[in-house]
Design a protein that fits this description.
single chain, Neuraminidase, 4 domains, 46 strands, binds zinc ion
């Protein structure tokens, strides 16, 4: 260890100069970015609708942009210019993103990358800025030096000559985020969603495992600033932390109750936001800051990528809610008559079953998808900042979060609820209300469920008004994709929970979601296959669960072990479905070509009780609920 390193460590141990904390912006200062010289602060309000630049010497605030959601992912380059991305949703639902450069010395903005589909992300490079698109890339000069970025489960390093390499330093991650090169260009700092913060060398060899922290920035080549978030199992609370690559330093530098988030470092200063209020604070540390090279003010260059996709394909980011059977998951032990045992309903399970089904259905229909989890472990319970950042990174056209609902009180209801960010009827991000309405419309057509109320779409700011002004759901909070959270039904209503224990029922919910998504992207007429779904119930056998509130046909016992045979119009047996033992009577036939089908209901010793006709239309669900009577005589066949 050199003398210099000892001095740095000693200084870190001396701690933070708390006296130097000051407020830079009183409110609405989310995702603060400080310029390399510490003179300018960039930030945006909680709905990303504008981008503000404050001159910290004069106190003057300028609106850089106020159209098409310029906030959240903007940066100030080493050249002192502001780089930001706006988005526009076309009639067909596709989102096109445009990159801009604003020069504070002239007060003028110019478009540097024309609208393109997919992810468009401003990044710091060693000697400039790169705006990374999937079709076109902008560089602030001819030689911007090295940089790195993340895309899905890839960490990509681009060297000074423009050669890129894909690294996979951490296995089993739900995606990489927030990658940056150290000031000396020798190390990469990144977060592996669900796994934590890591430092690796340029070959992807892990040098440091820093724990469950988010949104990291290099302070210098040895020290890192990052945040923990409320709900984080290790740190329990939203705070800013000082970490060292060698793991020796790991301590919070903001008070426990301040709810500090979104840290960023420049000029030896740490800026961060206070959650909800958006107050921006700045803190100085007793540690030597990084010495950064001077970045030239160059003429930018645009490169068209040769291997860019030919077509713009709708892209959906799917977020199956919760993860693992702990913390915030909702677990309801359920006595099931059919198996004479207690089954364990977990919302994380049915959310994942629906999510995996939706992913497969959408891919079959030709959509592109990205997803926040594919398994259901404790590590899959991602932080809300991770989910939002993975969604942004995916370059998706919509964000779609899958949940089920519960009243939380003794009252029982059952209806589909779509939540989007914003006020009722006034979504924070344009398109979200259309998406929610389209998905809820199809959810409510589900005739297997007994609905107590009509479906509805609500703005989360109005719905959770007691949480505070414009607080709303965490997973929608910093999301500027058109998006929604689907509370498909109420799992604390017993018959609905019994249905949600059935994977085919979860599949049906996902299928109906896909119909809403097709409507949203004006693609409904494009797809050919249809679905038949229904339940089998005992017409003359009511449920005897004394302490359970039941509605409509849910008062009837369902038929476990009913056999359904489906024949097409040529009389060929298409498929067989047997209802399960979990007291739901659910049957679902998927992927059916449009046709006039014959559905036969068998029960007991392969005895035929009923034959019905079902018409399948393209890209629709045909419902057929069937009844049996205990005294019913089987038909001859
Ligand atoms: Zn949930």
């Amino acid at each position: 260890m050199t003398i210099l390193a000892l001095w740095v460590l000693g200084a870190a141990a001396a701690g933070v100069n708390q006296g130097s904390v000051k407020t830079l912006v009183d409110s609405c200062g989310f995702f603060p970015q400080l310029s390399a010289d510490g003179q300018w602060l960039l930030y945006s309000p909680t709905d990303a609708t504008s981008l503000m630049l404050k001159n910290l010497s004069t106190g003057q605030v300028t609106t850089v942009a106020d159209k098409n959601y310029p906030g959240f992912d903007a940066i100030i380059g080493g050249d002192g210019k502001v780089y930001y991305v706006t988005q526009q949703r076309k009639k067909n639902g596709l989102v096109y993103r445009t990159a801009h450069c604003y020069d504070p010395s002239t007060g003028k903005s110019q478009v540097v990358l024309k609208p393109q589909h997919g992810r468009v992300q401003p990044l710091h490079a060693s000697y400039g800025v790169v705006i990374n698109g999937e079709r076109q890339v902008y560089r602030s000069g001819n030689s911007v030096g090295a940089y790195c970025y993340t895309r899905g489960t890839s960490l990509v390093v681009v060297d000074a000559t423009g050669n890129s390499r894909t690294l996979e330093p951490v296995k089993r991650s739900n995606g990489y985020l927030w990658a940056s090169l150290s000031p000396d260009g020798k190390k990469i700092l990144f977060e592996a969603a669900s796994r934590g913060l890591f430092v690796c060398d340029l070959n992807g060899r892990i040098i440091g495992n820093l724990g469950e922290f988010l949104m990291p920035s290099w302070y210098n080549d040895e020290y890192i600033i990052a945040m923990s978030n409320a709900g984080n199992t290790r740190t329990n609370g939203s705070r800013i932390w000082l970490l060292s690559v060698d793991g020796e330093t790991c301590k919070p530098i903001t008070p426990k109750d301040e709810r500090a988030v979104q840290p960023m470092v420049a000029d030896g200063k740490v800026v961060y936001t206070v959650q909800y209020s958006g107050e921006v604070k700045q803190m100085e540390l007793d540690i030597a800051p990084a010495v950064l090279p001077t970045v030239p003010r160059d003429k930018g260059v645009v490169e068209k990528l040769k291997n860019a996709p030919k077509k713009d394909i709708p892209r959906v980011f799917i977020n199956p809610g919760h993860g693992g059977h702990d913390s915030d998951d909702r677990h309801v032990p359920t006595w099931v008559i059919g198996v004479q045992d207690t089954m364990h309903y977990y919302e994380s399970n049915s959310n994942l079953t629906k999510g995996l089904a939706l992913e497969e259905i959408l891919r079959d229909k030709g959509y592109e998808t990205a997803m926040s989890r594919h398994t259901n472990t404790t590590e899959d319970d991602l932080d809300l900042f991770e989910i939002v950042s993975l969604a942004a990174n995916s370059g998706a056209d919509i964000f779609f979060s899958i949940h089920s609902n519960a009243t939380g009180i003794a009252k029982r209801v059952n209806f589909p609820l779509g939540l989007y960010r914003g006020w009722d009827g006034q979504p924070a991000v344009e398109g979200s209300l259309q998406l929610s309405n389209a998905v809820m419309k199809h959810a409510a057509t589900n005739k297997l469920a007994v609905w107590t109320h009509e479906e509805r779409s609500r703005g989360d700011w109005s719905f959770y008004t007691n949480w505070g002004y414009r607080v709303g759901l965490g997973v929608l909070r910093y999301n500027k994709l058109p998006g929604m959270l689907s509370e498909g039904s109420f799992h604390d209503y017993l018959p609905e929970r019994e249905r949600l224990l059935n994977d085919s029922y979860c599949w049906l919910e996902a299928w109906n979601q896909s119909l809403g998504i097709d409507d949203y992207f004006s693609l409904s007429k494009k797809f050919k296959k249809g679905v038949i779904a229904g339940t089998v119930r005992w017409e003359d056998l009511t449920r005897q669960d004394n302490d359970t509130i039941l509605f409509g046909d849910d008062e009837l016992r369902t038929v476990n072990g009913a056999l359904l045979r489906l024949y097409n119009s040529r009389g060929a047996l298409n498929r067989i479905f047997t209802t399960d033992d979990l007291d739901n009577g659910v049957f679902v036939f998927t992927n059916l070509p449009p046709d006039k089908y014959k559905l036969e209901l068998y029960y007991g010793d392969n005895k035929l009780y009923n034959t019905v006709k079902v018409n399948v239309k393209r890209n629709q669900t045909s419902y057929k609920n069937l009844m049996l009577r205990q005294d019913q005589k089987p038909k001859k066949h």
